Each structure stands twice: as structure tokens, then as C-alpha cells.
């Protein structure tokens, strides 16, 4: 990893509902609900699979989305998600432990709004 490492909240702490192009996440530790637009939900999906830096995330996301500002724009989205408490910086040791936990406990299925 070249830049700061990011990790998402443990998948068991988030409940997700798709809402006509937006995604609602209920974060159980804080009791807050966050309404996110792409690519923020996809960033959280990737980080649920394991830690990554902005460059790694950009490489994966740019295959599915046009991120006009490149890695700098993605870094801004990561900063917003960090401010909301949905992602955090991680050490190499924490990254390894969280990656193992993510493999052992895959994220729950996505609920669809009726």
C-alpha cells in the first residue's frame, strides 16, 4: 500500500438498504443513518473485503465509475466517510487482523426497498 491504509467498519455493524440510486446505511454503534450516493457505497463494499489505500480503491472503482478528479477526488470521498465514522485509518497489523475477520464474516445481504 502506497498511501494511508483505510478500513471499513465491521460489516456486522452496518445495515444497508438500496433506495432508488442511493443507499441508506444504519451504523449500529453510533445509531446514525447515512444516505450515500455512488461511489461511496461501493467504497464501503471494497473496504469490507479488506483494507486498501486510495490508489488501490481507485484502480478497482475506475473500472465501474468515472471519477473525474482521479485519486484526489477519491481521497476526498474517503475523508468524508472517515468524518462520518464509516471508515478509519489502520495500521498494518490492524489491516491484517481486519482482513482475516472480513473473510470469516462476510457482509450481510443487501435489503431492497419496496
Please, could you describe this protein's structure?
By secondary structure, the chain is of the alpha+beta class. The chain contains four helices and six strands. It has helices at about 40-50, 55-60, 70-85, 90-105, and strands spanning about 5-10, 15-20, 20-25, 30-35, 85-90, 110. The strands form two sheets. A four-stranded mixed β-sheet has the order 4-3-2-6, with no helix packed on it. Helix 2 (about 55-60) crosses helix 3 (about 70-85). The mean pLDDT is about 85.
Summarize the structure.
This protein is 39% helix and 22% strand.
Helical/strand content category: alpha+beta
- How many helical elements? 4
Which sheet architecture does the biggest sheet show? 4 strands, mixed
Low-confidence stretches: none
- Beta strands, count: 6
Radius of gyration: 13 Å
What proportion of the residues is helical, as a percent range? 25-40%
Determine the N-to-C terminus distance.
Answer: 40 Å
Oligomer: single chain
Question: SSE order in H/E notation?
Answer: EEEEHHHEHE
Strand content: 15-25%
- Strand arrangement within the widest β-sheet reads 4-3-2-6
Q: Quick check: average pLDDT?
A: 84
What's the shape? globular
